[in-house]
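Course assignment 3, question 2. Fill in each field.
Student: A.L.
Task: Predict the tertiary structure for the chain below.
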Amino acid sequence: MSVNSATGTRLRLLVGKVGLDGHDRGAKIIARALRDAGFEVIYTGLHQTPEMVVATALQEDVDAVSLSILSGAHNTLFPRVIELLKKAGVAVPVFGGGIIPEEDIPRLRKAGVKAVFTPGTSTQDVINWVKSHIRPRNEGSASRAAKLRRPPSAARRGTPGRRKATRR
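Answer field:
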């Protein structure tokens, strides 16, 4: 479900590259695949701190956070992002992937990571997982569009605006 039928809004997903890892090809492939599947995707770029990822997630009002970690710091960075989201008082699911040994996956799941995708996972598998497990956080409340709606401009209200200066 990339579009919420009740509100017409697309799921908003943040794809983050946390830590000092300088390789983002996989994250960009996932971000593009998710976008092409109809999701709204915000990509953070390289070298983000957990605090930066959480700040972006809050600012962008995302429905889920996906992290890509190839540096081996997954046992520290995934839990830190989850901890910061909890401190901020938001229930945003976190999933992700990268070079993660099988023996570390149970620890990450116990820490709150909803899914871990390892090398060889197809982009379609990730898309299918997101469609079946991620729901809009604001479902049941005012739509995101309504919350962000600006007051109508003077032209749309039918009130006179500034008149253009004319040359004589």
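Instructor remarks: The first helix runs from residue 25 to 36. Residues 16 and 133 are 19 Å apart (CA to CA).
Grade: pending
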